[in-house]
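Protein details
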Amino acid sequence: MGRLALTALALTLGLGLADAPMAEPRRAAGGLETGAIEPGAPISSAIPEVTTVPAGYVSYDVQPEPEPATSDEAAAKSEVEPEPIAEAKAETGPADAEPAASVAAEADDAPKPDDTAASNDNVAPAEETVAADAPATEAEAAEAAIADEAGAHAPAGQAAAEKPEMPHLDPATPAAEAIRARLAEIPEEGEGYEQKERAALLEFYATRGYAPLWVTADGFNADAEAVVAALATANEWGLNPEDFPRPALADAERRNLPPADQAAAEVDLTQTVLKYARHARGGRIMQPSEQLNSNLDRRAQLIEPADVLASVAAAEDKGQALLGTHPAHPQFHLLREKYLAALGNDRNAAPNAAAKRLRANMEMWRWKWPDIGDFHIIANVPSYTIDVVKDGRTIHTERIVVGELGKQTSIFSRRLQDVTFRPMWRVPESIKVRELWPSLLRGGGMMRQYGLEVETKSGRRLDWRTMDWANTDIRDYEVVQPPGPKSAMGYVKFSFPSQHTIFMHDTPDKWMFGQRQRTLSAGCLRLRNPLRMAELVLEHDKGWTAAKVDELAKRGPLNNEVLIEGRIPMHIVYQTAWVDEDGTLKTYSDIYGHERRVTLALDGKWNEINKGRNHLAPHVPDRRQISRAQNGPQPRATSRSGTTNSTFMSSFGLDF
């Protein structure tokens, strides 16, 4: 519903919209920092193994290129996230640039995406969404998700202009000529990342006249030995040492190597360097959502291959530069310390069960944005907690409720888009198809019970009592619950749009936060104290006081969206192992089985992975419901312990 429509509704109800505090309009951002670490800058001394950070980060999409969006689709999509850079190049502009306020104001008038289930192993879908939070179509949501995940947060200072082309030089020695010939033998076909690595290799050597970096006629030079030594520590970093076998030339006593042998050793070692850097950034599992589970919406955060080669070649200690391709996140390195301790005295030993748990948690950090934000929110699903972090320090911790085992909370990162006070609830596709449509066929008892209304996609209110639901597709309409005492959203919700159509919100059912296992929602995150979260976010973003936030939540306009102007990343993570600031290792139950899936993948047991169902699959009405409605009575609402209408609303924290 647009602002004018909301105003008219409020005036009709006598709510005095004009006199209430209003959200400030969003300003279009002229620029935005994209990271916290300058290219080539030293990492904190707390992480002595890492010395430099290569200049560019990129993630590769190994799927076919999407069809170009129409002008209308592009306009709708601009509300959510910028489009991904073609061919997964490093970002060259403000990837997190804010959309104009006028675009955001039209959110409610855009078509809404189908809601999707959050379960993999059960048919019950995720059941929480507000269409105003989502892109116009599911395809656009997926593209927006890729844009946000695919290297959108590279280190600060990354050049906005394209890098100048370096001249290609002809080989000046027989060894250089042999290297050029060896490079020409690399297959042109392959996955996207393989093609990028091949192109980077060809360009790197062409600009240096194919002069060797590692090999002389007498064998490996000192730089090569340093890199070989770094490769030998793969197991200490949670990588598979079998992926980086020791080059035969490293132990050879042969001298006066022929040019062909020099070229073979040279190219092989450079390719191994690129492979190591790829694995260091999560490249063993390139697409977790496709290879493991659709709820694991993460991507390998690969470093641009050309930047890997340039950084390593320019480094004084090339072995340390290679180790510097691992994530710089402090938690990654704290977990690594515990992993080394679990390995024991033999650093090359096969990891035991404890070490494998830590290795899996390290791997999931490889998928996270290089820059997680100076001010960010991080919700850890297995621990049922959420933290607000500012400048590396946790300033607030709160309990949360997460998705049921059959309606899981998806794991992803997006930027926080808005905080909505006294929000309305737009019923997701899954609930419309599976619960409301059967109820409407029987007379619409659930519509009356929870004060729901039917609207067209453009927001025009319809009388659902007069509609022929046996011959009407409910997916063509919106079902909404206006703000009020029965609202599923409570006082406030936080939106971070994605194709998963989940968000974070209030709940009147505070009993849930006293449970030890809080897998009680339909996919969304519920906060025990959402107003405190709103206070911290809006104080940081706008300088608002707690009193102003409380006024908006208790007496402000209905469905009042406060757009976030700055960059506040929202990270939903799945860490079954976490090292506290005092060095204590805490472990949590693998409630959704993601740790097991990652472990099986790292062990190469892909055929044992149970991916479950795709929670993004569309919802189709079961036409058999028509005959059932004609033969059976209307189900009656029951208490929270019941199995009828309570199933519908108890997932949203309501108990009538």
